[in-house]
Specification:
The protein has about 260 residues and is mainly α. The protein is built from 10 helices and no strands. Helix 3 packs parallel to helix 9. The radius of gyration is 17 Å and the shape is globular. The N and C termini lie far apart (about 35 Å).
């Protein structure tokens, strides 16, 4: 499959914008997956290529947060390991298990997340006592959401963020930083499976990866400088958009 320079430039720009948004609030796949499908990639290749390019974006944001002291990777080792294993299992099982149940539940969860941040004024302030130990958090949240990302995917960033805020009692900047680390972990685990299956379109994925890397770096910088005032409303907006998009795909008759 060949692509014109105009199409390549558009995909690069879409990936850059998606990387910027994803670094702050998640949901970059709302832009990149439809863009890949629109240029003629089959769904499986579009999803695999999206994982390829988004891995670079999540790595860029993670690296920026780590270098700015917002994430201590040593304290996250268990959560990273559990997320990786969960995502790998999810990516393997998606071949054999119908994802229909998740497609019905996730829009409701995303709407719940947006309502939580919209109507809980102290959400994301941080400083409270964690409701789970780091070990319990790693095995439940890390493994569970990692599995979901490998198995299905939409809203992974929002799910991680809400857990870091509501369960680990972190502020929005800390939650966003740790979210990107685990999001990168789950992306890599799923990507390895897609590579073994020979699905990514490398020439497009790597070009988009450059755009995503640049966009994510700027997004991470904005997240640090603007903080909770920007991240919180963006999480609400992106979660609502993802929920509406999934509901529209599942029940198009509702929107006619």
């Amino acid at each position: 499959m060949e692509f014109s320079y105009e199409v390549i430039a558009i995909l690069f720009a879409v990936a850059a914008l998606a990387g910027f948004i994803d670094a702050i609030a998640g949901g970059g796949g709302l832009l990149t997956v439809p863009a890949l499908l629109s240029v003629g990639l089959p769904p499986a290749q579009a999803l695999a290529t999206n994982k390829l390019q988004s891995s670079f974006g999540s790595f860029s944001a993670s690296l920026y947060f780590v270098r700015n002291g917002l994430v201590n990777l040593k304290t996250m080792r268990l959560a990273i390991a559990c997320t990786f294993v969960g995502s790998a299992i999810g990516a393997e099982l998606v071949q054999f298990i119908d994802a229909g149940v998740l497609t019905s539940i996730i829009p409701l969860l995303l709407l719940g997340i947006s309502m939580y941040f919209l109507f809980a004024p102290q959400a994301g302030v941080g400083g409270g006592e964690a409701k789970l130990s780091e070990t319990a958090f790693a095995f439940s949240v890390g493994f569970g959401i990692g599995f979901y990302d490998g198995f299905f995917g939409p809203g992974t960033g929002s799910l991680f963020t809400i857990c870091f805020v509501a369960i680990a009692q972190l502020n929005m900047i800390e939650a966003t930083a740790r979210t990107k680390v685990l999001n990168f972990t789950s992306n890599i685990a799923a990507l390895l499976f897609f590579i073994m299956a020979g699905l990514p379109v490398w020439e497009i994925g790597l070009i988009m990866a450059v755009g995503g890397f640049i966009g994510a770096r700027f997004g991470a910088k904005v997240a640090i400088t603007k903080g909770r005032k920007l991240i919180r409303p963006m999480v609400v907006i992106i979660s609502m958009i993802m929920a509406i998009k999934l509901l529209w795909e599942q029940n198009p008759q509702w929107f006619q």
